[in-house]
Amino acid sequence: MITILQTELLKLRRTIVQWMILSVILIPIVFNLIYVMLSGLLEDSAFNWNTSLVFVNFLLTVIIAPIFYAGIASFIFSREYREGTAEAHFTYPHSRASFFTGKVFIIFLFILTSCLLIFSVNLIICLLFADIPPPPNFIKSEILGSLRIAFTQCGLVCITILASIAFRNIVAGILTAVIGCTTSIAMLLSSLGDWQLLNPYFFSLVVTDLTNYKLKCIFSGVVSITVIGVLAIIYALHLYKNNDVANK
């Protein structure tokens, strides 16, 4: 498996994925720095820790994370179809499922590390500009919030992977994420009720602030995004192994 991971990482050298990874990390950091600096100039009150990272979480859950992660996953899984190298995997002494697992592991690992890295850097920025220490349990709650974002984005990216493999192109995966994000924002503006949490894209949108929802509805949202993600990745593996190459 280590060899497969090294192979998949080497494939990403000198590709657009490197710039996408850099963008998904730097964009929220830069915007948060600007936001914190402007807040300090425009407000005479003390630094508000309770709202300091809300702007970053908003950028991540609404725009940056779903679209950029979808783009990265779509590129990784659609590249071999564009380049016509899908059947070449049968010349390696590893199963096709092993390459699939390696790609998914790399994507999940990137999502987790990027969410934690974004949180860490933005926390440092807030500490530099804050004139009061953070409230008790603030850092713990924000770490848990970052982990929740990572969990939901892993669930959503499974849907993207399925779309990319099913249609064999990068556009399908990104378009799936765009449609999902659009419906989630529309549902948020419509205030249709707690059942909205069953939509995995809506659940990922509000995952950092679930105080207005009932516990059973939150549990239903967790189950929904988990089940949909697992089913999507299982079917994506089936397509990747059996339905996309000539020699089976």
TrEMBL record:
Protein name: Uncharacterized protein
Residue ranges crossing the lipid bilayer per the database entry: 21-42, 54-77, 104-130, 150-167, 174-198, 218-240
Source species of the chain: Cytobacillus firmus (Bacillus firmus)
A Pfam family that the UniProt record links to this protein: ABC2_membrane_4
UniProt KW keywords: Membrane, Transmembrane, Transmembrane helix
